[in-house]
């Protein structure tokens, strides 16, 4: 039978190797601990937070700046000293920008954005995203041909807050002509929210253009209302015709209590056909006629889109769509 035995010399050599391995392992552990303490935790931890805004999942929530503003910032001292209660953004569709600085001192502190032959709704969709204007309580989106000699913005906002208006506009001087009866200025009152129009245009509860209506000429939106309206604006329907009939969808019901005309602060529509001149003469029509025709086409397209979207939504719920047309 065979017997395997180990000599004393082999045993000592094995013990020496074991001590070397133990020493090496201890050193490796100590070095690993020291290395771990020497680097920030993000070197060994992958951040992924699904609740963060899309695209920012890899950032710690405390560093995310999901909203911005249009306040101008000084390049020295305290930048906040530059800001005021209002920020003016001028959208130039005619290419004329710096010339305003020569005539109006306030223009030097305004933001000028110039893209040829576009409308204010095109600009608003692209430059007034709700997260960009989230710091502002109200957003004014006005046409360029409005007389403001009888208008005070601070007093206007006082009236809006007093009467709980989420969407509003100043009244129009009736002597200068108006398109809709509801926008006509009424003397000796602060605000009105409905009017008498053609019988076939009104319903119960009152709806546009008899109530829950402001014209797209000079609307003023609260922050919350604008977040909804921005999503309602279509990228390709830049004239905005028909939008005023759908604005009531962006306030809590009853809409006719949250939308109104401010009579104590009024403006004058000067009817300067400047946008029409940006068109092009085609098929025997003058430039302004082509622009006006496109306005009417977009109105019908917008109405159809809203109605179809509503029907599709209720169909997905397997319920009947209510009668909620965007137009009269």
Automatic annotation (TrEMBL):
The chain crosses the membrane at residues 21-44. The keyword Membrane applies. InterPro entries: DUF707. Keywords: Membrane, Transmembrane, Transmembrane helix. This is Uncharacterized protein.
């Amino acid at each position: 039978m065979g017997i395997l035995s180990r000599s004393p010399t082999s045993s000592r050599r094995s013990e020496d190797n074991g001590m070397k391995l133990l020493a090496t392992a201890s050193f490796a552990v100590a070095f690993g601990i020291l290395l771990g303490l020497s680097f920030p935790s993000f070197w060994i931890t992958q951040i992924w937070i699904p609740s963060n805004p899309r695209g920012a999942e890899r950032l710690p929530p405390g560093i995310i700046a999901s909203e911005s503003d249009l306040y101008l910032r000084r390049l020295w001292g305290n930048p906040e000293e530059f800001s005021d209660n209002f920020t003016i953004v001028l959208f130039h569709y005619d290419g004329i920008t710096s010339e305003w600085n020569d005539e109006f001192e306030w223009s030097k502190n305004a933001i000028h954005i110039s893209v040829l032959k576009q409308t204010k709704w095109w600009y608003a969709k692209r430059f007034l995203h709700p997260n960009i204007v989230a710091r502002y309580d109200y957003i004014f989106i006005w046409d360029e041909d409005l007389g403001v000699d009888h208008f005070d913005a601070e007093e206007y906002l006082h009236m809006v807050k007093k009467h709980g208006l989420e969407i509003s506009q100043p009244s129009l001087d009736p002597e200068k002509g108006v398109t809709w009866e509801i926008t006509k200025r009424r003397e000796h009152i602060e605000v009105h929210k409905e009017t008498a129009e053609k019988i076939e245009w009104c319903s119960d509860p009152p709806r546009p253009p008899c109530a829950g209506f402001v014209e797209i000429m000079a609307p003023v939106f609260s922050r919350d209302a604008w977040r909804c309206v921005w999503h309602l604006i279509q990228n390709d329907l830049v004239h905005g015709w028909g939008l005023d009939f759908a604005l009531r969808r962006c306030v809590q019901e009853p809409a006719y209590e949250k939308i109104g005309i401010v009579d104590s602060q009024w403006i004058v529509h000067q009817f300067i056909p400047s946008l029409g001149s940006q068109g092009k003469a085609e098929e025997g029509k003058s430039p302004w006629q082509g622009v006006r025709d496109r306005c009417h086409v977009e109105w019908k397209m917008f109405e159809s889109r809203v109605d179809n979207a509503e029907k599709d939504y209720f169909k997905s719920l397997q319920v009947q769509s209510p009668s909620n047309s965007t137009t009269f």
